[in-house]
Amino acid sequence: MSSRNDYLAKKYGTTSKNTKKTKKSGKSTTNYAIIDEDEFVGKWKNVSSDGDNDNDDAAPAVDYSELDNEEKSKRWRPIGADEDEEPQIVQDLTDSLDKAPVEDHSPKRKKRRTHSSDKRMASGLNVGLQTADEVKKDLERIEKETKDRLNMDPSRSGRDAETVYRDKHGKKIDIAAQRAEERRRIEEEEKYMKWGTEEQISKEEEMRNKPLAIYKDNKELNEELKSKERWNDPAALFLSKKSKKKEPSRPKYQGPPPPPNRFNIPPGYRWDGIDRSNGFERAYFEKRNARSAMTSEAYSWSVED
After folding, report:
1. How far apart are CA 193 and CA 279, in angstroms?
2. A GO CC term (predicted)?
């Protein structure tokens, strides 16, 4: 038996059970009493209505202790209820509310600027009140930084580096190539202007040297007249071909013959040969041809006799 008790004590704790209920310390509660209102109605009616002559000693005194004890004895109490449970729950709820973050709906306040001793002027000197030694050290520091910056490797500092030009798309622009292209374009324009000027000068010089009177044996005039083409020239078929000046011409339609129209307007040179009209031109020509045929037939019938 003892071994079992030892085993239970070792595994599950002590085997002895305390059957005696622990006495709970009574909590202080607010005294209250149930008073019948009808019992004191008659007494309060006899009290004088004058508030200045009220006698406080004449008021009825009520002993609440006996009523409190009697009410406690009549109160329902659940079995095994712990009286300390409710205060503990209230305390836990209060702690959780205290720990919960409180949302601040007030407008944001401007933070005060903290003055730092690391602020410096544009020259690099520190600001604020300083001693002579501090100012001297500050000047020496700036002088040292300036020397180090000047003695820095050009590959790192970017000194004397070539300027890189880019267009709006981010591509590099070759300035030398652009300058050469601009120079070539200017030279060509000058050359064309020179040619035009020289040609005009030569024409004016030729006109100035021409004689005022022109005779029928003028060779230059005869050659100029022969080189011209005339539509009613009867000797144009057997004479030598005349030189034609090349003139700029627009492209024309070279396909199969298009359907006729009232105004004889040729189609464009990009036309694919498909008639996409509403058929008015075709109906117009058919009607006109039918009318012409009827007129000729009527005339032939009229002169048949």
Report:
1. 55
2. RES complex
Q: Is residue 168 one of the residues assigned to a domain? A: no
Which tokens go with 60?
């009825």
Is 302 within the bounds of a domain? no
Would residue 194 count as lying in a domain? yes
pLDDT value of residue 255: 86
Tokens 């509310």, residue located:
97
For the chain, which residues score pLDDT lower than 50?
Answer: 15, 48-58, 83-87, 114-116
Write out the residue range of the structural domain in which residue 186 sits: 173-204
Count of C-beta atoms within a 10 Å radius of residue 71: 14
CA dist., res. 112 & res. 121, Å (int): 21
Within a domain: 158: no
- Answer for the pair 86, 53: CB distance below 8 angstroms, yes or no: no
Is residue 52 within a helix (H) or strand (E), and if so which, with residue range? none
Report the domain count for the chain: 1
Strand locations in the chain (E): 165-166, 172-173
DSSP symbol at 152: S
**For residues 73 and 88, what is the distance between their CA atoms, to the nearest angstrom?**
24
